[in-house]
Amino acid sequence: MKITGYGLLTAAGSTAAELAGASAARADMSALHDDLPRPDACAIPGFDIRAELGRKGTSAFDRATGLAIVACGRALADAGVQVEAPERVGLVLGTTEGSLRSTMEYSRETLVQDRPYLVNPVLFPNTVMNCAAGQAAIWFGLKGVNATIAGGPLAFLQSLRYAGNALDRGYADTILVGAVEEFTAHRAWTAELAHGGPVGEAAAVFVVEKDPQDRTPIAEVPAVAAGFGQGQGALVSCLRRALARAGARPEEIDLMATGDLPGERAESDAVTAVVGRDLPQAGPGDRFGHCGAAGGALALAGVLGRLGDGELAVITGRAADGAVAAAVVKGRGDARADRR
Amino acid sequence: MPARIAGSAVRTCLGDGPATFAALLRGEDGVAPLRHQDHAAVGVTHGYEIDDDRPEAFHGSHWLTACLRDALAQSGVDPARQRTVALIGTGLRELSAVEDGSAFATERLHFAHAVRQAAPQTEAVHTLAGACSAGGHALALAQDLIELGEADAVLVGGADAMTVSMLAMIGRVADRPADRVRPFDAERRGVLLGDGAAALVLVPDRGEGPGTARVLATGLSCDAVHPTAPDREGILRAMRQAFERAGRAPGEVDVVYAHGTGTALNDPVEAAALRELHGSPGPLVTAVKGAVGHTSGGSALLSVAMAVHSMEMGLVPPVTGLRDPLPEADGLRLVRGAPHAADVVTAQVDAFGFGGVNAVSLLERLA
Amino acid sequence: MRRVVVTGLGPVSSIGIGVAAFLSALRAGRSGISPIAGFDASGFPHRHAGEVRDFRPEEIVRRIRPGEWGHSAQLAACAARLAAQDAGLEPGGAWADEAGAVIGTTSGESQVVESLVDQQMAGGLAGMSVASIRQLPAERLSYAVAEELGLAGEALTLATACSASNYAIGYAYDCVASGEADVMVAGGADSVCRWAHAGFYRLGALTEKECQPFDATRSGILTAEGGAALVLEEAGHAAARGARVYAEVLGYGVNCDAGHMVSPNEENIAACMRIAHRKAGIKPGDVDYISAHGTGTRANDLVEARAIRAVFGAVTPPTSSIKSMLGHTMGAASGFGAIATTLAIAEGFLPPTINWSTADPDMPWIDPVAGTSRPAEVRVAQNNGFAFGGNNAITVFGAVE
User: Fold this and answer.
1) Are C142 and C223 in contact (CB under 8 A)?
2) Residue C118's closest chain A neighbor by CA?
3) Which terminal Cβ of chain C has fewer Cβ within 10 Å, N or C?
């Protein structure tokens, strides 16, 4: 599968070059919410759905949906995709649990209204995890395979793998694959309580194609593998499978982007165990805050920002319960160039 | 300044507004054998009664007060601080209380008491007896009050409880009284009454605040032809006047909430008027009386409230009770069988009353 | 391409837990609907749902500790355990080294979300419990399955709403067919919750007590819950270990309406059926039975019936909806549909549509298999799943020679 374009919305910029090595500015988000564990977050303070997408048809969108649609639009434009055969264009989007805020607020309404059914029917679809993918499909008229992957920290790599399969099996010619995580007070608090760190916000969408006819790929993804198991062994064997499927030898790998946070080495140790040496790290770490499902997508963006023509990188991810995934990425042309 | 609908509420046999609209989408109706009336005496066996813990008398007032409370709460209007006027449309006021001997206090025959139960500080309450289009007439006057700056908020209501006299009249008009209302159906057998009330809160539209729709205009006309039979020309005059006042064209309408009483005369005449005005294919056409009966004074505002729900949800409910459309409806896009998904920006609401009084309102979704 | 067969079934439903109980309820046309006990429904005009009564996960699972997982993950893990047992696969055995789990869901851990809301009401967002936050991620539905069965392959949670199980079965089928794995466990899980009950009520899509798919007087769904799992296995792998084979997975189709979030679309559903038939290598005339999405709403059933007519022509196969018995189990729904379809093929009967009494004049071609099941030879059957967001997914199953 080949990457022919991307769209990024992050607190650190909107191109791969900007993301490589950069840290997200911490913005004061207390104007948006008054109930925050800390005023600052790695969020996109200026993001305004109506300013980006207009007023028509956007009034029910939650922030996650707005971010996803804007990122999809940028990806389509970047790759120069015209949706001419809508049934051949798909969308695969990673999430943790959709919009936690939309869901919790909807549930809360059933408790605080005079009668529990006095909820807003228009907002009901926002409680369903495929809302962003469904709305993006409507916005751009994408009638091909449309999947939402709930994978938290692994969501993007799992989405990439799902998209690769859908391309291989002929369910689409072009797929938008990405992940989105919104900034809300709800996520700020869950991140704070569960991880003790600032929450992040990002949306990243990549255009992938099996055989792009009239577009020049900026990178290739020869393999994505996934597995499950406790301990380091699961990721090690997952990485080995990914390399084997990509036909890549361990010594050819130039770069890694792991999901390790500062002070963690679980994933980079697994990479070292497989490739036999320490590799430069392009993973996001905590530079963008806790970005949940979007973390893996930021790792790929970071890799694109540093990977030269023909160079190889591995991207890894690991979930608390033991799920693992690994992707092999190969640079094509100069992905580092700012093409906007 | 244009008039925004900042709150709306209804009570029907199917419940409050959200419950009624949900039931419309499900294709359900609230028709049942009459519980509170002597079938043989009135010659009618079925109706759309509200089955609640109603007080002994003054049912219409009871439901109207409940609607006004709901609508006021949604609107955020405080009659203690904003100049608030109430206009209540009704067919027969609290006649049912007279019939059962409860009303010897004449001041409770109209709805000032009911309004003050919900909003004691309302400056003035006017009850408009305008038969089955009374709510539409009240809405027209309310819009004037807002546009002229005569009031900060207008409570527009409509209410009627079933009366023995009206039931007996229906019983005598029909050869064989209907057991349900079938608007626009080839085999319709007439109208049945429904208990009901509806209330809207109108405020000047300053581009913010609660609410999803504004009132564009209401066209009013009188047939001056026949006391009960509808007249196509009279109806068309009201429709055309509404578009003229609103500065809109019929082609802009997305849905018509028709008067649709299921009587021999109304439906073909209304269908013909709609066809002439809108051409074919015109807008979607639906009607609520198959589900909730004819709620008389409340009926126009009930349709307005349901049209607002359609705008909010992008769904137009089917015409409950409709099986095979009458031939005159050929070419009308009657919604049948299941809700129709539609982006409803502009809605037309028809209401026609005895005496040939017609009110046709146009609503527009706020951007 | 390798052939893929179904060798194990694990239903955890309101009409039965385990394949034997589920099968007998399906044959008899039993209803699983009851007054809601899972949350306080007293303020709702409609107070019935399809809850899994007598659900005691601690009696089914052996490796996970149910208390560490949300209700939906428990349903998924129990369904998977039962499916593996049914397939004769011992958890943690060599087969599990490359086997994976793919679970679909609509609302994930919806009951955990509602616990968080209760905590928020009591003590603000700062008052949310870390234990609840830890149970929240929907990804844990497939992880619970992997953990319970000791699977070392891919664990994936698909959140494509009410067609999610079909998405999951389709993806798992691809994994086995392409040689990624010899065995995959696929299905879906969801739990009843207050917010979905409220939302469906407001949309005019929730009926009071009886779900009546394809009936002229149908008036909506009943919310419901459950866990559904199927063991998908490479045909040779199954044969080598002498496994009992229920049916073969022939293929699947997916597409997206890209039109409206909640209203189904006839043309796109018909297109999805054609994709499924093409991918499965069958023609409409080969289909002996359709397990309908059949939610019982005015709109879905009419649109689905018309799409069936558009694809199949004047004579359409018997088309029944098990939602008449189960209610709408959301992300698990097409998983239960797949189990019913598989059983129809293996056991030679058509699952019924219960609560059906009046034909809808707008869809006279529909034979809903009213009331109780009917003996029939089912060689090929399709299982429809549609969803909010326009996510259509259809799986096709066939008899094994």
Assistant:
1) no
2) A108
3) C
Determine the Cα–Cα distance for residues A35 and C237; give it in Å rounded to an integer: 56
Cα torsion C305, C309, C312, C316: sign? positive
Contact B316, B286 (CB under 8 A): yes
Residue in chain C nearest A231 by alpha carbon: C152
Alpha helices in chain A (DSSP H): 16-19, 49-53, 63-79, 100-112, 131-140, 155-168, 185-195, 233-246, 266-275, 295-304
**Active site annotation includes C328:** yes
In degrees rounded to 5, what are phi and psi of residue C334? -75, -15
Q: Which residues contact C131 (CB under 8 A, 6 or more apart)?
A: none
- Sign of torsion over alpha carbons B281, B282, B284, B290: negative
Q: pLDDT for B251-276, tens place per residue?
A: 999 999 999 999 999 999 999 999 99
SS3 of C121, please? Answer: helix
Helix axes C333-347, C164-177, angle to 10 degrees: 60
Q: Locate tokens 């044959």: which residue?
A: C27
Residue C260 annotated as catalytic: no
Enumerate neighbours of C (3 or more CB pairs within 8 A).
A, B
How many Å apart are CA C259 and CA A68, to the nearest integer?
17
| Structure token digits, residue C377 | 């030879």
What is this structure's pTM?
Answer: 0.94
Q: CA B279: distance to chain centroid?
A: 25
Structure tokens at A50: 């109506």
Of C48, C71, C162, C193, which one is the catalytic site residue? C162
Neighbours of C401 (CB within 10 A): 4
Instruction: For strands C100-104 and C48-49, give the pairing.
Output: unpaired
- The Cα C206–Cα C191 span in angstroms is 16
Write the residue in B28, B317, B338 that is nearest to C302 by C-beta: B338
Of residues A55, A56, A117, nearest to B18 (C-beta): A117
Closest CA to A226 of A319, A102, A320, A146: A319
Beta bridge partners, A253, equal A312
C349 SS3 class: strand
Q: Is C237 a catalytic residue?
A: no
Measured in degrees and rounded to the nearest 5, phi and psi for residue A320 equal -55, -35
Residues 6+ apart with CB under 8 A from C250: C280, C281, C282, C380, C396, C397, C398
User: What's the CA gap between B56 and B51, in Å, rounded?
Assistant: 13
Question: SS3 letters for C136-174?
Answer: CCCCHHHHHHHHHHCCCCCEEEECCHHHHHHHHHHHHHH
User: Residue C182: what are its φ and ψ, rounded to 5°?
Assistant: -90, -30
Q: Which of the other chains make 3 or more beta carbon contacts under 8 angstroms with chain A?
A: B, C
The CA distance from A41 to C248, in Å, is 51
ipTM attached to this prediction:
0.97
Token pair recorded at residue A241: 């499978």
**The tokens 């020679």 sit on which residue?**
C401
Sign of the four-CA dihedral C305, C311, C317, C320:
negative
Per-residue pLDDT of chain C (401 residues; tens, 9 = 90+): 899 999 999 999 999 999 999 999 999 999 999 999 999 999 999 999 999 999 999 999 999 999 999 999 999 999 999 999 999 999 989 999 999 999 999 999 999 999 999 999 999 999 999 999 999 999 999 999 999 999 999 999 999 999 999 999 999 999 999 999 999 999 999 999 999 999 999 999 999 999 999 999 999 999 999 999 999 999 999 999 999 999 999 999 999 999 999 999 999 999 999 999 999 999 999 999 999 999 999 999 999 999 999 999 999 999 999 999 999 999 999 999 999 999 999 999 999 999 999 999 999 999 999 999 999 999 999 999 999 999 999 999 999 97
**What are C197's two structure tokens?**
């009950």
Residue type, A316: T
